[in-house]
Amino acid sequence: MSFSNLIELKSFSVFPEYFIGISILYILIVLVLISYSVSGLIMQKPVSECIGLILLLACYLILNDDLLLTYTSVSLYSSSCFYKAISLDYFGVFTKFTVCFFSSIYFFIISDFLKNYKLTSFEYLLILLFAVLGLILLCTSNDLLTAYLAIELISLASYILAAFKKTSSYSVEAGIKYLVTGAISSAFFLFGSSFLYAFTGSIYLTDFDWILFNDSWVISDIAVSESFIEIGLTLIIFSLFIKLSLAPFHMWSLDVYEGSPTISTFFFAVITKLSFFVFLVRIFHTATLYYQDSWQFYVIIIGFFSIFIGSFGGLRQKKLKTLLAYSSISHMGYALLAFSAFSTFGVEMLVFYLVIYMLAGLSIWFIIVSLKLNTKLYFNKLNKELGDFILLKKTNPALAISLALILFSIAGIPPLVGFLAKLGVFLSILQVKYYMIALLAILCSVISTFYYIRIIKILYFENFIAGKLYFPITTNKTILFSFSVLFLIFLFINPTFLYLIIQKTVWSSFSSGLILL
Amino acid sequence: MSNLSPDFLFYSFSGILVFSAATVVVAQHAVFALLFLILSFLCSTFLIFLLECEFLALIFLIVYVGAIAVLFLFAVMMLNTKLQDLSRNLLKYLPAGLVFGLSFFIPVFYQISNSFKSFVLKNSQTIYNIGWFDLVDSISEMESYGQILYSYFILQFLIVGLILLLVLIGIVYLINTFNAKQTTNQSTFKQLSVKSSFFSK
After folding, report:
1. Contact across the interface for B151 and A1, Cβ inside 8 Å
2. pLDDT (tens digit, 9 = 90+) per residue, A470-511?
């Protein structure tokens, strides 16, 4: 491939990624020059909003992709570029767009609050942008090497984000813990990839499909036995489950979420989850299609176990961030149930659930990040506990009602969209006839409602005379926030457009091999 | 020399590798552990040489032994940490470690030893072909790496560059104290008066 071929715009499908990468370099150069002459404190807000705009532009570039413009009529079109390293399909484009869009909203949200949390150096935003780049690379990566590098980009950024507050020993501890677990996860991934490579002789996911199931390829002649691929898949699934903090692999996430700066925790809990699921779907639902029997049962058990842990672990929890970490574990469990249903309907419901999870997560973390005690004290307490919400209905009634709505949506109470998301997950698991697991998961969901409703009780029904006073939130942020809360209601009334988009993306990308339900 | 089969070298090096890797875990003294770590790196380098991957082996040698292990050794000697409680911890974590390690190791070992049984050449000296064509018209290993890296894996190469940049930014931020008044000077007296507790005990 010559250089002119490389920059040919016709096959320039990673243009958004190039755009973000070049903007990272540009921001780095400009801000290093500025920050040595001007104090770093004043440029937090503009830089953050600028990065939000960059990501919005990247969203536009993703929508402007060749694939959407030229191949809309061909429903089953899926292709790849960079010698099969990057796959071009609607699934990748949609998830890339989702990650980009939500992270641009994230940057707009945090722009005001970086000062409160004393994260004043510009490197923070830059490292966040690196992590977003890794996330959108992972969404479209089609081989194990690119996926590994994207995961490394995400995780190395995450370690630094967790340890970013050098003065707090909790933050440093969180960073070290994250680093050690992440190193184990990477080692698992590489070991599993080496097994897959030993069996197939290829690292491309599209090749696996061909090599494993093409009739002309006689497997009995190969020296290695077929359970090599099962070992490899097991190791890869371990590594990705550690990253997703599913239940037997969740121990790191509680400490890391509590210890790291709240804005970083916001990022870990909300933005990062979708891409890992996209890669899981790619490797398990398309590449190694007929190994379904060897993993489905165990993955369903892991999904149920994480719902169980997430529901019961949060019951006695008083720290808000740890509570939300448990909540995130149980949500990942629901998403994993939809994943393990192994049907196109299951993948649709997985993506729908994760989009709703990100929307609700953005709203609730917005409240947690934005509440700042109205005191003159310099050493303000930054980590919140449940008791900090006492009498919020008196001090800020609009925020209180929207927090109650978001919590109802996360718990899955009907007039909000969280109900539809959970309903879809249970439908997809019922379609493959795991009735008992669905029943138990619903029971755990009822139990987990307890701690969501306890927050609402603290908001509204506490017999305290004096609550805590918080600073009001600026108008710009309020508009953004009310849109995201309104969407939680609006999507319940009319979820069709989201369902249709997801159905189209999933069907056009995965319907070739999956069971159509 | 003719009796020396290639398997002999392989088995001896991998035996030393396993022994030294186990010693790294068990060793009480941090310096000894690191020296055995270096030995295990060396042995794996020899193993890679036996597979005729010269470039990879040399990179392994230069990066791991030349840079990382020596840096470790330097840091351990500087830090002067006390590691007396290691043996107690080892006994505490041994059962869980053994259970998980064995349940992980046994299936993998079983599969590998089963799978490659048919490929072991019993009499490896009889089958000895020399590809004359490869000797005449060949490119060096470096060249082939370069050709593949800059054509097929250009995207991955760029991502690796970004990862390095990210790590650079992160390390500089985490280490730098941004204290302009206090410059770090070398204090010769302090350095010379450090009591070496490693080799006295």
Report:
1. yes
2. 888 888 889 989 999 999 999 999 999 999 999 888 887 765
Residues of B in contact with A119 (CB under 8 A): none
Out of A289-298, A371-380, A410-419, pick the least confident: A371-380
- Which residues does A412 contact at the CB level (< 8 Å), separation at least 6? A418, A419, A421, A422, A445, A449
Phi and psi (nearest 5°) for A385? -115, 170
Write out the residues of chain B at the interface with chain A, using a CB-CB cutoff of 8 A. 107-108, 111, 114-116, 118-119, 151-156, 158-160, 162-163, 165-167, 169-170, 173-174
Q: Which residue has the higher pLDDT, A22 or A513?
A: A22
Q: Tell me which residues of chain B have a pLDDT lower than 50.
A: 1, 119-123, 201
Distance separating alpha carbons of residues A403 and A296, to the nearest angstrom: 36
Contacts of A42 (CB under 8 A, 6+ apart): none
Contact A442/B at CB under 8 A: no
Q: What is the pLDDT of residue B190?
A: 77
The whole-chain average pLDDT of chain A stands at: 85
Chain B: give the shortest CA distance to residue A415, in Å: 44
| SS3 state at A143 | strand
- Does residue A371 contact residue A365 with C-beta atoms inside 8 Å? no
ipTM above 0.85, yes or no: yes
Residue B197's nearest CA partner among B76, B47, B96, B88 is B76
Residue with tokens 């942008």: A129
Query: What sign results for the dihedral spanned by CA atoms A36, A42, A46, A49?
Result: positive
A156 and B167 within 8 Å at the Cβ level: the answer is yes
Does the beta carbon of A159 lie under 8 angstroms from any beta carbon of chain B? Answer: yes
Q: Is the pLDDT of residue A212 over 70?
A: yes
Q: Do A228 and B173 touch (CB under 8 A)?
A: no
A249 vs B: CB within 8 A: no
Nearest to residue A365, comparing CAs of A268, A266, A274, A459?
Answer: A266
Q: What angle do CA A470, A476, A479 make, to 5 degrees?
A: 90
φ, ψ at B137 (rounded to 5°): -115, 85
Chain A residues in contact with B166 (beta carbon < 8 A) = 127, 130, 153, 156-157, 160
Lowest mean pLDDT among A43-57, A87-101, A502-516: A502-516
The answer for A371, left when phi > 0, alpha when psi is -120 to 50, beta otherwise, is beta
| Partner residue facing B170 (CB), from A28, A127, A224 | A127
Q: How far is B4 from chain A (nearest CA, A)?
A: 26
* Structure-token pair, residue B163: 């990862």
Do A137 and B159 make contact, defined as CB atoms within 8 angstroms? Answer: yes
pLDDT digit string (tens) for A84-98?
Answer: 888 878 888 899 999
Contact flag B108-A123 (C-beta cutoff 8 Å): no
Q: Are A285 and A510 in contact (CB under 8 A)?
A: yes
> CB-based contacts of A88: which residues, under 8 Å, 6+ apart?
A13, A65, A66, A67, A78, A79, A80, A81, A140
> For residues A120 and A330, which has the higher predicted lDDT (pLDDT)?
A330
